[in-house]
Design a protein that fits this description.
Blueprint (H helix, E strand, L loop, with lengths): L17 H18 L2 E2 H8 L3 H11 L18 E2 L1 H7 L1 E2 L1 E3 L11 H16 L6 H14 L15 H13 L1 E8 L5 E14 L2 E8 L4 E6 L3 E10 L21 E7 L18 E3 L2 E8 L2 H9 L5 E5 L1 H16 L3
Antiparallel strand pairs: 1-3, 2-4, 5-6, 5-9, 6-7, 7-8, 10-12, 10-13, 11-12
Helix pairs in contact: 2-3, 5-6, 8-9
């Protein structure tokens, strides 16, 4: 007679899917290689799994590899670990790995270029997660095919001024500073800081100017006596529409006609007004710039030697020529 007794169905815990195990192994192996020798307990704590799961995964890693030319697995085709340390001391050390080095990796030059860009971003007040950027820089340094060149982004803004701007942005406070404008006049400015940007070696603060009641751009090297006030900002970067161009046209701007090599026209885009007429003159492009003062024009042209020529007006040509001659005389 058949057994009529009923058994309560066993409660089952869903087993990890194969793809979940694979994803875990893909994360585990590089971590073990990076840390050289760790305990099972340290690995379990890092990944938030049980110690038995770590032991099982490590044993699976030791049976993994890439078949050789004979399509069979030989000893050199498999991962291997320090079995004595694993079984006796619960330590994990990969003594042989395969295929990992065949994966595409950044060259030392590529990693150095990315690190330089991240260092630049790290300096900007708007990037609050600087710890995340530092971690990414460390990963790029370790993950490149060779050690990246030791470098730092130079020509940045004055450290004290930048530190005060970063503090003001973090605390939502207004800054006050003395500013030397393009006409050589010194003015006190109260500004809600919104963004820090740069063009070549020059750094700028974009913010809401309470004196002018408008968005304005200030050069770091013309600021002095900066303080962070107790006044909260009235305008936040998330609420303001900041134009893509760094400089906004003004009715007081001066128009200058220049001829430039085609490859540098893009660098002058912030100074070329919308609708400016352009024409080809030989191998150069003639167009119009708008600048607030000829002093700024001198610096702009000097930064692109041999590629930009001032055509008109005569006052602008003379200002640039005299400035260049004065600079040359210092070398005599």
């Amino acid at each position: 007679m058949a057994d009529k007794r009923h058994r309560a169905p066993a409660r089952s815990v869903p087993a990890p899917q194969a793809r979940d195990k694979l994803a875990f192994l893909l994360a585990l192996v590089p971590w073990l290689l990076e840390h050289d020798r760790v305990t099972v307990q340290e690995a379990a704590a890092h990944f938030g799994v049980t110690e038995d799961e770590i032991r099982t995964s490590v044993s699976l890693v030791a049976m993994s590899g890439v078949p050789g030319a004979t399509a069979t697995y030989q000893h050199d085709d498999l991962f291997d670990i320090d079995w004595d340390a694993f079984e006796s001391d619960d330590e994990i050390a990969i003594t042989q790995h395969v295929a990992i080095d065949d994966a595409p990796r950044l060259s030392a030059r590529e990693a150095a270029a990315l690190i330089a860009g991240l260092q630049y971003l790290q300096a900007l007040p708007g990037n609050a997660d600087r710890a995340g950027i530092r971690t990414l820089i460390e990963k790029l340094s370790r993950g490149a095919s060779a050690t990246p060149s030791q470098l730092a982004v130079s020509g940045g803004p004055d450290g004290e001024v930048l530190g005060l701007v970063q503090r003001a942005v973090a605390e939502g406070r207004r800054v006050r500073f003395a500013y030397l404008n393009s006409r050589g006049e010194r003015e006190e400015r109260d500004v809600d800081p919104l963004r820090v940007e740069s063009i070549d070696a020059d750094w700028y603060l974009r913010g809401w100017d309470h004196l002018r009641q408008a968005l304005r751009t200030f050069r770091f090297d013309r600021m002095s006596d900066m303080v962070v006030t107790d006044d909260p900002i009235e305008h936040d970067a998330s609420e303001m529409h900041l134009p893509d161009t760094l400089f906004e046209p003004s009715a007081e701007d001066l128009e200058v006609t220049i001829e430039a090599s085609p490859e540098v026209i893009g660098l002058l885009a912030d100074y070329i007004p919308d609708g400016a007429l352009t024409s080809e003159v030989g191998d150069r492009i003639r167009t119009t710039l708008r600048v607030s003062h000829y002093h700024g024009l001198k610096r702009l042209i000097a930064g692109m030697p041999g590629t930009v020529r001032v055509v008109a007006p005569e006052q602008a040509r003379r200002a640039v020529a005299e400035w260049a001659a004065a600079g040359l005389a210092r070398y005599a």
